[in-house]
Structure formats: C-alpha cells, structure tokens
Records
---
Amino acid sequence: MKAIIKTNKGDMTFELNPTAAPKTVENFSTHAKNGYYNGLIFHRVIKDFMIQGGDPTGTGMGGESIWGKSFEDEFSLDARNYYGALSMANAGPNTNGSQFFIVQAKEVPASMLAQMEDLKDNGFPQEVIDTYREKGGTPWLDFHHTVFGMIIDGTDVLEDIASTKTGMNDKPVFDVVIDTIEIIE
C-alpha cells in the first residue's frame, strides 16, 4: 500500500506499513481517501529534524482520528524513525489523531550513536545502529511515535520543504500546502 502526498512543492511517495501499524494506516488512509488532508498545511518545519502536518487548524493543536477520539500507539521493532519515516505526531502516549510528521534528520548526533553502541550488549540490534548511522533519523523518537510508512520517492521535495523559511513556532512563512494524499492499494 502506498500514499502519495501531493504538495504545492511536489510529490512524496511512501510505502505504508499496515503490518506494523494497522490502525494507524487505516486512520491515515481513510482520512486521505475522505479528503480530510486536502488543503492543509505543513504547520511545523524544523530543518534537520522533521516536517509536520495533518492539523485542520494549522496550529499543531487540532485534528482527530477517524474514530473521533485518540487511539493507541502501535510500536514495532521493525518500524524505526529513520530518515524519511512517516510517523504519528502526538501529545504523549496513546494520543494519536490526524497529525503526522516526516523525519528529515539526515544524521544522528555522534553522541547518540555512541550511546546506541553502548546499548548493543543489552540487545540493541547492530543492524538498527548501522541503519541510523547510514541513513540518519531520530532514534530518540522510537517507541514514542508510531512509524507507519517510509519515503520511497520524493526526497528532493522533503528537502525542499525542510529548507522553507520559517517564522514563529517553526511555521513556514509561505504556506506549504498538502493538495491531496492519494492512496494506492
């Protein structure tokens, strides 16, 4: 299952992961099919971290799930916040609604990689450490935010959006608009 996020800066295509996050994929894809995200903005952009959207108020304070209430986190050892991950934004455990973010951090801080290496003996997989070292990402968000997809095309658009000039509260000065999100099953 794929999602194409079509923006006024270009398209980004994601491979969705319903095996790791079935409820999250259902929520996101149903919202997309119903046009919920059409015309919304990326209201929070922090270069070398992430871009966030999915809030109908454009403030970071709004949005709801297709069920009209928050739903639980879905964590998987196979779904990490690597560069290009599509993850749910939240206000704490089990508070998922409609907001999502795309990880744009191309590098993991060296101190964090060293901490991860230290945890290797406690069962932290070397493969995960290597992938973070190679691809970048935000490992500190693992098991705090549900990862439900991964970018497979359009990293140039992700980089363009991340480079957008921002003002107060990391909000782009000129709106970066989600025109539509197309779901391909």
Note: The chain has four helices and eight strands.
---
Amino acid sequence: MNKLLIVGTVAFDAIETPFGKTDKILGGAGTFIGLSASNFSVNSAIVSVVGDDFPQEYLDLLTERNIDISGIEIVKGGKTFFWSGKYHNDLNSRDTLITELNVLADFKPVVPADFTNSDVVMLGNLHPLVQSSVLDQMTQAPKLVVLDTMNFWMDCALPELLDVMKRVDVITINDEEARQLSGEYSLVKAAAKIHTMGPKYVVIKKGEHGALLFHGNDVFFAPALPLEEVFDPTGAGDTFAGGFAGFITQSENISFNNMKNAIIHGSNLASFCVEKFGTERMLVLTKEEVNDRLKQFKSLTQFDIELQ
C-alpha cells in the first residue's frame, strides 16, 4: 500500500451548537484527516503532539484504524492542545471561546523513519514553519504535497506561509481565505493568483455550497450533498482534505481528472462528519454507508442534455 503522511493537531475540542454542547472530546485537524483517510487502502501516519492528559483510548481509536501513531509525541507533564467554540444558528459562523496551545506551542515534528519516503504528504492546518520542517525531513520528494491553512496564518505568519506554498502541489482553503490570500474577490481570479504562489492545484472550499478545483484554465465544481440536518461542522474541512488525500494516495493517479474524483470522495466523507458532534460519526462509519452516499452524489451531478 502507498504511504500517506499526515501532519496536524491531535487535540481536545469543546463544542456548542444550537443542537447541544459537549465537554472535552477528541478533535484536531490531524485526527479528522486520519480518520477520513482510513476509509482508503493506504498506510498512514500522523505526526503530532499531545500531553500525558490525552487518553490512551483515543490513541487506540487511531491504531484500530491502521493509523501509525509513532509520530505522535506524548509530552510528560504537558497538556494537550484545547479549542472551544460556539456556532451561531446558521452554523456557518462561530466564535472561538478558548484556545490553549499547551504542548503545541513548542512542537518540533519528527517524521517516523518509515514515512520519510511517503508518496503523499498532507500538511494539516499548523504553523507554516512546522509544515516546512516536515518537508525538510523527507528523504525523497513526495509524489504530491497537499497544504491546508487558514486566515490566522495569513495574519501572523504570511512570509513563512508564502515560503511553504512554493513547495506544495495542492492548497485547500475556504473562499474567504482565498480572497484574503489573493486580494481578489472573484474566486477565478483568486485561484489564478494563488497559482503564481506555487500550488499547481487550488481547491477552494465553500462549505454547504461545495468545492471548486482549479488547475491552470481547467475548473471543476463539486456540490455538497443537501442534508436535512447539519449537527456540527467542526472538522468537516479536515475530513474533506483527508478524503481527498486518501483517495489520491490509494489510486496512485495524480491528474486533474482523478482529482475530480478525489474532491467527490472528500465531499462525501465530510457530509457524514457534520451529522454528529466531533469525530463521533466518523468512528462508526461503514463502507456500505460511504458507497450508498457516493451513489447519491453521482445522481446529484449526472444528467443528459441535447445540444441544439
């Protein structure tokens, strides 16, 4: 099986939505990416850091899904990264209530020796210097490097972000972030400008309105599946990225046409993530459910038309 290296937070989240609230639960970008990618036939590893307050049962949940956790550092006496947020009624906006970096503040990633030759590297949302450090440890050039980032790093670490962008093939960001990074309101113009910063492929996530894939003059749009209820959007973007990277790693096909399929697989998995709090839905997801919903995506987007 091909190797997928995932870098991102393994963390605690506390979430409040109009449908309820949680105490500290399993979260983090690396966690969502890893759980999503585990739906594919890949050898994956997560590089992250936690404190010794992080339950063994959470680590076991990852290893049970064949995710290598030898790159997750456990800091003795340290506290795990914690984020708390409250979503507004539309679930498209939220307020961050608490952010405690804890052990993440001094995180120095160490890539497991078995994964320094990974086929695909998925750089989850972290400081750009951490993302660059991981690329520095690769013993051979990955076939594909995917970068996820956010407006926070554009605000406080833009030079470092621009440096790491020169080293990646794909960037995944939301529409607001694409506009901030490029200074362009039109997403077509924004993607064109971001291309000049390094990434050959630009994926712009639009939440409940789907995702766009840009490569040169080629554009592909994937809808989001209309859902009766969205319970908790936390981790949906990371789940999307994990599905995208997992499918590409499994298929060994790095082309624009195959990335269209990867976008659909990512969107499909993200549609499950939002149905429960945190990682709850992803932990009980079955292959049958995934395939059934893929058929829904196919019927949603397929049509015949006669051109006059």
Note: The domain at 3-299 is CATH 3.40.1190.20 (UDP-N-acetylmuramoyl-L-alanine:D-glutamate ligase).
---
Amino acid sequence: MTDPDTSTLKKPRRGRPPGRPHAQPDSADQRSRIIDIALALYARQGYAGTTLAAIARAADMTPAAVHYYFKTREQLFDEVHEAHIAPMRGRVEAIFQEYKGDPVAAFIKVAERFVEVADEHEWIAPVFFGDLLTEGDTFRKHARHKIDYKKQEAFHERILQWQAEGLLNPDLDPALVMPSIMSLTMLFMAARRKWKDDPIRKDVDRDSIRKHAAALLGHGLGPAKA
C-alpha cells in the first residue's frame, strides 16, 4: 500500500494566544479611537490622570499597543491641540479682528464661543482648569511650549491701550480678563454635571450660562460711568 499524498492535506490553523487582541498598526480608525478614549478620560479626570496606561485599560489594549501609535501622552495631546485648541485660538483672534474697535463686544463674542466649545468638548474645562484646582502642574508644563508669549504680551498691551482710550473698565487687570471669561463660561459648563441635584442650579443650561456671561461682561467690561 502506498502512503497517502499529504501535500494536499490542510494543516490545522494555529489559534491566537489568549489575551487582549493585537493592535492594528495600519488602522487609522484605531488611532482615532485611542484619541477619543483619551478625550473621554480628560473629561472625567483631567490631563494629569490620563496616562497611556489608563488609556490602554479603557481601550482594552496592551500598553505596548497604545505605544505603537503614541510614544508619550504628550505626543497624543499634541494631536489634540492641533485638531481642537489651535483652531479655537485662531477663531478667538478672528473675533478681535472683526470687533477691533469694540472690545466689549469682542469679549462677549469670545464668551459665547467658549460656551459653544465647552458644549462640544466636555474635556476642555477639566484640561484647562485641572492644574489650577490641584497641586500638580503636569498640563501647564507640557502646554508651555504651545504658548506664544509674544502674542500674549501684545494682547496684554492691547487691553491697556483699550483702557487708556476709555473703551474698557480701567479697574480691570489685563492679566485676568481672559481667565475670567473662561471661568464664566467653560468652568460653569463643566460644573453643570455637579449641579444636577442642586435645587438652585439644577436648571442651569448652556443658554443661561451664555446670557449670564454676556450680562456680566457687558456691564463689567465697559468703562466706568460718571
């Protein structure tokens, strides 16, 4: 009897080892998914608490798989910055160009824009205010190289000029104007989640925050009346 021809027999398929699935290196969707998970974690625990290890756990991936796409969390945030924060700054600068002769109207428009941004991106406020509300400065250290200090100094001088021209309240501290507007808008938008059971503030919504900010800014930013 001749031996059977084994060349046509199918070899048994080797199963995948148990454990988490491997990353898909060529998948753009996987990269976007990691970023989306990072943004969701930013919203819950800010920038400092969102490590690559935390992202890997939330994504049900190994740290090595996440590391394939992003070597550091700073690299991941750089993409977030370019996709979301840089355009926001560009739109704010455009508002001041449009209303360069009316800074009060410009700041009110900026406040409205901040409300829109905070509504679209729940992670914005926890990222920007996280370091201010804790002892850490992880985000500030990373974001420092993203800040154009020459532009900030020029804007500071611009506010002083508006005050000298009688277009803004002279009692305003130029260094606190933009942080104040962010607090009136982004911080309050984030606080809504904490106010769900608050009998006084539970009905605060996006529109009421927008109107409140506009009312305060409209009267507080303007020049003092005789």
Note: The radius of gyration is 25 Å.
---
Amino acid sequence: MIATDLGPLRATALVGALTLALSGCGLFTEPAHKPKAARSPAVAVQQAHGCPPSGVRLGTGPVDGAMGLRAMTLTLTNCSERPYEVKGYPAIRVLDEKGVPLTGVRTVEGTDEVFMAPEDPGATPLTLDPGDSARAGLYWRMAAEDGTYLRVVPQQGREALNVRPAEPLDIGPQNTLGTTAWAPVS
C-alpha cells in the first residue's frame, strides 16, 4: 500500500474551483436558449438565395455570451456587380416575434455605454467591391425579453434590411445595444 498526503492537493483543487466560480467561468453555465419551432416569419426577411434589390446581403453570427455580456457580429456583403460604399454605424431596431420594436431598447453608436464591451474602432469610409464584406459588432447586457428580428439600416439614407438571427437576442426593455462601426472583413 502506498500512503499519500492529499491535503495540499485538496487545497489546490479548492482554490482552483473558487477561482473559476468567482470569475464566472467553468462551474456556472447560463441556460441555453431552446430553439423555437420553425414557423413562417412575421417580418419580411431576405431570401436565402440570390441578391436582394438593395445589392447587399446581411448576415448574423451566433450570440456569444459570458458573465451577462452578449456579443453578435453583423456581416454586410456586397452581392451586386458594382461597388457599395458604407461609412459609420448601422442603425438597428430590435423587433419582437410579431415585428414590433421592443420598447425601451436604446441603440447607440459605439460600445462605451455597454459594461465590459470591447472598444469600438471608430468609423472609416469603406468601399465594398462586389463580393467584399464588412462587419459590425453588437453588444448588450443580458435581460429577460427576447428580440426575434433585427431591422438594420447599413447607413443613413439606405434601405432597411430585416434579418432573423439564429438565436434570440435576450436584450429586453430598458437596455442598451451598442454597435461598432463597419470594418472590413480581412
């Protein structure tokens, strides 16, 4: 029989577990959204194929969340045959399942008003050649209500595009949605 002293090992394991628990990583996981049953959309969204009349296609990435901060990427792709210019920030409205804007959700340019969000790189003019893409980041703090759709105006004076992210946005009322400026996809 081999005798071992487990005292230091237990203390090390306890310190590691407490560190993970206090940092919000590892031991606690937030409940995942259950996918809703497929149904016809209440809001007109882009078709899955082809290039819409606007000449650009809008897509969303998955929602990434940790410690209450949520992040999602918007991707704007020029699917036309001519250059598409964009500068600044997307204007965004969060819509519910019926296409009604969520009351109290405020969108802002930049990320300063969203606790723990990364710094916004700032706006620069971009010309998207056919096939080129630009990205903007969306950041918000977790809340109780789910937004189902996003209505996005890529730049002031442009046509609004509706998109349904793969996951609901748990942004809720009295919350702020921060956006980064459009940046080229490298």
Note: The chain has a mean pLDDT of 79.
